[in-house]
Amino acid sequence: xxxxxxxxxxxxxxxxxxxxxxxxxxxxxxxxxxxxxxxxxxxxxxxxxxxxxxxxxxxxxxxxxxxxxxxxxxxxxxxxxxxxxxxxxxxxxxxxxxxxxxxxxxxxxxxxxxxxxxxxxxxxxxxxxxxxxxxxxxxxxxxxxxxxxxxxxxxxxxxxxxxxxxxxxxxxxxxxxxxxxxxxxxxxxxxxxxxxxxxxxxxxxxxxxxxxxxxxxxxxxxxxxxxxxxxxxxxxxxxxxxxxxxxxxxxxxxxxxxxxxxxxxxxxxxxxxxxxxxxxxxxxxxxxxxxxxxxxxxxxxxxxxxxxxxxxxxxxxxxxxxxxxxxxxxxxxxxxxxxxxxxxxxxxxxxxxxxxxxxxxxxxxxxxxxxxxxxxxxxxxxxxxxxxxxxxxxxxxxxxxxxxxxxxxxxxxxxxxxxxxxxxxxxxxxxxxxxxxxxxxxxxxxxxxxxxxxxxxxxxxxxxxxxxxxxxxxxxxxxxxxxxxxxxxxxxxxxxxxxxxxxxxxxxxxxxxxxxxxxxxxxxxxxxxxxxxxxxxxxxxxxxxxxxxxxxxxxxxxxxxxxxxxxxxxxxxxxxxxxxxxxxxxxxxxxxxxxxxxxxxxxxxxxxxxxxxxxxxxxxxxxxxxxxxxxxxxxxxxxxxxxxxxxxxxxxxxxxxxxxxxxxxxxxxxxxxxxxxxxxxxxxxxxxxxxxxxxxxxxxxxxxxxxxxxxxxxxxxxxxxxxx
Length: 724
Description:
By secondary structure, the protein is α+β, with helices and mostly antiparallel strands. The chain folds into five domains: 6-105; 112-304 and 361-378 and 538-582, no CATH class; 308-360, no CATH class; 387-515, no CATH class; 590-718, SH3 type barrels (Roll), CATH 2.30.30. It is built from 26 helices and 18 strands. Strands 9, 10, 13, 14, 15, 16, 17 and 18 form an eight-stranded antiparallel β-sheet that branches.
């Protein structure tokens, strides 16, 4: 084998580093390509001038010191190395050179332009205006390229399939892999094959100012996808949500089939032929199966052929109830559920007013998917941006203006002065009466979720116990506790159906109102949860977070709106190239705060030393750590165990780093005694004790931390994030 001279090794290393630098610059969502050009020129000028000085000085020194001993080859190599440094970005001066260099790495490809349809545009020729046909196009990012490179990143393949094995061996229903839907798909179509499920998500995104004069002019339709069985803590990472297609929203309305055709064709290929993945244990052929389509209600209906009017006679995609029945329906009618047979009958009827179906769903081409069997619901839009607003506004109207239990000023003071601790990012804004009257409060979904979870502790002391209107709030927060849980339990879904029925009955009875469509969708939740798993894993919350880096920041960084889908697609492919070039796989599972100390040196060591395992006194401890994408800080509250059918909580004092590679992160906690569950405030009353606990993280009954807060009565309360 011919060995390359040292200076060539050096030259190649510089080239690789330059290519990675360029990819990283292109990946920035706040830099447009003109900015990248300027940065490259500035870096080149900076390095060239300084390297010239360094070269002159170094060579002068060498000649003076070892003039008679230096070999000519060594000197020539040194000169060549300095020549390389002097032109460190040679081959990257222009955009064409930079893009070609990225293409040569096989980590960057151009987006594929595809035809959606033809439209007409009025143009002026001389003094005459004429209609000219124009091609409507979208941009597709090959999924095969993305998935192959993603699975070949360090540790990704092993982490995913290790997680699949753990899920298959677990008794707790937490993932689509364990669901009846997936087991049926896998047994029917993929027996003895290595297969991973895929979720496809659709949304229309407004890249410009929503209130501007051109709002809606450049609205983009975006298709994202995700492997839902990667380790759960990596699911929320935006870089593990991938983009497949971008197009103008207005263009899609002409033809759903054409807008989604590249994605559908590639999904079929991934399902039938799979991709060959290079792993540490040899090549593996991995197949992918599209099993769930995610979107908000309007988006889902618009891309699957259902009516987009929620005032239609048969607006529900889950059942065939008439809208007059749905206005007061509190339980699911199993005799009127949609199925493949009545779906085909409705297609033949071809009357949306009688069926609720406009067109045949283009996604039904897959053997693994049918729009009436692969069910999904979005609790973010249904409950957090729908039912919660209607309920809370009606409750506040009754309690402020009718019952006069408190004033709006008192409520806002309680909201402003509430102890948010580690949840300060979810602090709701003040409530104004016009918002209450309009039944739409000005707050995000995450702010509404926090407000509803803690509303009892905020204001419940001013409401008499047994107040019927307050029971509506209690029913809805009980529903939230179940539908936001990271697991599904058959008994809990049965109880959920009862809670939803009671909630709906109360709403109609108390306010003399009928149920809106989002209330109706809730009655289908128990069946959907039993079919696919936790709804928290299929809601739109995290998927919508992808809009900001992929579309909104890119659109903000450029003033050009000509072929915006192409601009967005190119920018996204640059970000992928940067990730693949840098070999950035899944994020580290554990990140510790840099400020550390020895356990024995802790100020309260004497209080808890008796519960420590032997030899742990010299362990390193920190006050903050991020473990599996969840941040833990001292003074947070964790659910340790169950005692007398009540959860036992502990206050986090120290986070203990593992001494050995195989050891796990542990917590030192001071205990609380759980007095009981206060059903009026919907939280646990606790009192501090002298008891201490040393717990490994994996032994907690829930990984999610919360806070201990003082109520108006002076007692301490813990509100948890989901049912325990």
